[in-house]
Amino acid sequence: MIPMNPIQSRLQAHAPLILDGALATELERKGCNLNDRLWSAKILIEQPQLIQQVHLDYFQAGADCATTASYQTTIEGFAEKGYTKEEALELMKRSVTLAKEARDLFWQDEARREGRTKPFVAGSVGPFGAYLSDGSEYKGNYGLSEQALIDFHRPRIQALVEAGADILACETIPCLIEATAIAKLLQDEFSGTSAWITFSAKDGLHISEGDFIRECVQALEPYEQIAAVGVNCTPPQFITSLIQEMKKGTSKPIVVYPNSGEEYDPEEKVWSGDTSHLTFGECAYQWYKDGAHIIGGCCRTTPEDINDILKRTTS
């Protein structure tokens, strides 16, 4: 079966593709308390309408894609809060439904959609480290086998696919073994599904666990279902170097969606420090010139940042 790939046709129509920005940041701005092991997945239970509104805000700002609120949704995480496996899977599916409903609401507005390609929905697949809720997505070194990681990711991927996600966003992956586990799982069990895989990186050369980014994207090159590769939730100052390194190892489209440049404290679950001295749009224009095909924002970025990307890269 040929995997569906909403990226390829859209990049032929226009580039760059613009992703959304931070979901959790916007939920907090709307009054949500996310200091919880479930993080933004908590709001799937409490106030799902706010998630839909954030997706709509990003579409209106110029995003071509909504990334679902499933980053930290796992059967294990929900079980710790007293939810059954069936209830957990339904909440994962709800994340896709909310994004699709927001997309359809946006698309009904003829004035706003003029000149736009109909947005698509990416089902967020966070790393095993996100379930641990201790910052491990920025460290790796889980000590798990490839098969254990395959078994961990299978149920959520199944739920997101069944709910109708157009593509999977396998993001903030800190280690190569987890990336190849996901790629093999898709190849063996989800042949009609495509995904992008983005790593978290600790500098301009290495992903969080220490492997060279060039070698990581090169290892994913044979997997047809991996439609794009890149980095996310990484400080903006490393992105140009990382793009240059990835271009040496892959022919796939390169996706980047950095954080604001602030530092995250996994114990207090707060961000601090300085952001880039350039606007996000100014940075994005440079990343586009460097060779990134798909650009958005991660933690601490906003609809205003996404609109800035739109203006800077399409003017």
TrEMBL record:
InterPro entries: HCY_dom (IPR003726), HCY_dom_sf (IPR036589), Hcy_S-methyltransferase (IPR051486). Zn(2+) binds at C233, C298, C299. Residues 5-313 form the Hcy-binding domain. Keywords: Metal-binding, Methyltransferase, Transferase, Zinc. Binds 1 zinc ion per subunit. One of its GO terms (biological process) is methylation. Its cofactor is Zn(2+). GO terms for molecular function: S-adenosylmethionine-homocysteine S-methyltransferase activity; zinc ion binding. The keyword Cell cycle does not apply. NCBIfam families: PRK09485.1 (NF007020). This is S-methylmethionine:homocysteine methyltransferase. It comes from Bacillus safensis.
